[in-house]
Amino acid sequence: MNTKRRVSDLSSHKLNKKKGVILSPLNEAFGEQLKLSSWSQERMPEYLWLGLILMNYERKEGIKIVQKILFNISKIIPDFDYPKLSKIIYLSPEKQEIIYEIIKNGAGSKALSPLTIIYRNHDFPIFNQYFNLPEISFNSRLDKLLKAVDIYSFPQSNEATDLQYLSFNLMIMKNKFVISGDLKNIIGALEEYSNTDHCKEIMEKHRAFIRALTGNEFEEKNDIFCKKFWKDISMITKCAPMIVEYGKSIIEYENFINGYKNIIEHIHLTNKEKHFNDSKYDVIIGSTIYSLKIFIEMNTNSLENGIMGRLGLRTIIEVLMILKYLQKKQIEKPNVWEEYKLYGIDKYKLILLKAREIIVENSSHINSKIIEIIVNEDKWEEFVDIDLKYFDDMKIREKFNYVGEKNLYNAYDYDSNFAHGLWGAIRESSMLHCHNSAHQFHSVPDIYLEQKLPNIIHDSISVMLSLLEILKENYEIPEELLDKVGIIGGK
Do 189 and 211 fall into the same domain? Predict the structure, then answer.
């Protein structure tokens, strides 16, 4: 448990191998018995009228005023357990007038006037008769209502906890909630809460008890009422999309790239005998050039703050991992380099066979003629089987652990979300956070393509330098060539 953030860490989660799911501690403990409810969506709209009253007073005074209103209501209308607005506004006209008179005498008509924007005269004439004040402009009422929604939406806030506490007061007043004398902490929380300032240390525990007590009400939710509230208030207010700004890199790439090219050229010129029949040489040099080309494309096309930059970084991370894997594996399996090449070729053979069946030439980016040449380059395709498993029958994550790059896998896994178009990646890159609490902080499409992403250039340079280390381990490279790349890269 991360006590500072009050959330569980990864080690606290449990792996359910049968379901293929990593369960959070709460879900693992309670399973289907755990029923979640949303304070802001399902309950806060019901009690917002209490919050509007509280906003007009200092906290302790406001709580006393609301408690007095609730007490008077409980004496006259005994069948009320929760002071929900959805119940009040659909009472008989006589009972509505009794309650509205109590509210008016206790807090004045002005407090609830903002609600007349949502609950209009056509549908709720008695409510408007008491609280729709012509001298208060629409914009003033709207501003007050939005402020209240903003204050009381977050369930962990002090203000929202005050509202949750008051929502439970009728149950206490009517002795419908009985607490065992052994539960002194809860009794203390209920007795001391309203008269204790939030800045007091004990209030952290009191607030937790209040939220736990009020988290599950003993009445069914009025989903229609709450959904209509959010629909109505969202339709009369504008979105407030937020764009997170990230700076561009100031690193000079040209020298880094030229230095890298010079190193590969030097290795190529000084290892001519390995060009013809050395699979290890082919894989290391080919994979490095492949990674360098991706790095250059990211730089040339300014992709470091974009989606495609993440796809590029993911790829060169996987290249680094597989080269480290092959190097380590060659000790027990000297022909692993040949096997890796064949594994890639048989994947291409599968593409070739499918292409022959469904692809019309010149209508696809897949050039089946080139693929056919590559597949048949070392042996006739009829002697090439197709391996559908992971290379060397080990999953990607296991390979990262095998080569001691567990942390690097985290970056790979994150960027894989972008490669697969999973919702987390879509949400971060293509949907903006609406800062309007009346819209429940929903997502807004980034239709003007303004949202950029954190710069990946430092990570990609780090991977390219790690690839350089593999080159150094296998081939002699003059120090003067290494210096030109290392200084630029920060090593």
Answer: yes
pTM metric for this prediction: 0.79
Residue 26: per-residue pLDDT: 65
Residues 164, 52 share a domain: yes
Q: Which of 237, 270, 301 is the last residue of a domain?
A: 237
Give the range of the structural domain holding residue 402, as residue numbers without chain letter: 253-489
User: Does residue 44 share a domain with residue 23?
Assistant: no
Asked if the structure places residue 245 within a domain, the reply is no
| pLDDT over 60 at 280, yes or no | yes
In this structure, the answer to whether residues 49 and 197 fall within a common structural domain is: yes
CA distances (Å), origin 294, targets 310, 321, 466, 471:
11, 16, 15, 18
Per-residue pLDDT tens digits for 298-333: 988 989 999 999 999 999 999 999 999 999 999 999
* 406-419 vs 307-329: helix crossing angle, rounded to 10: 140
What tens digit of pLDDT does each residue of 137-154 get? 999 999 999 999 999 999
Q: How far apart are CA 401 and CA 394, in angstroms?
A: 11
Does 299 share its domain with 369?
Answer: yes
- pLDDT digits over 212-236, tens only? 877 766 677 889 999 999 999 999 9
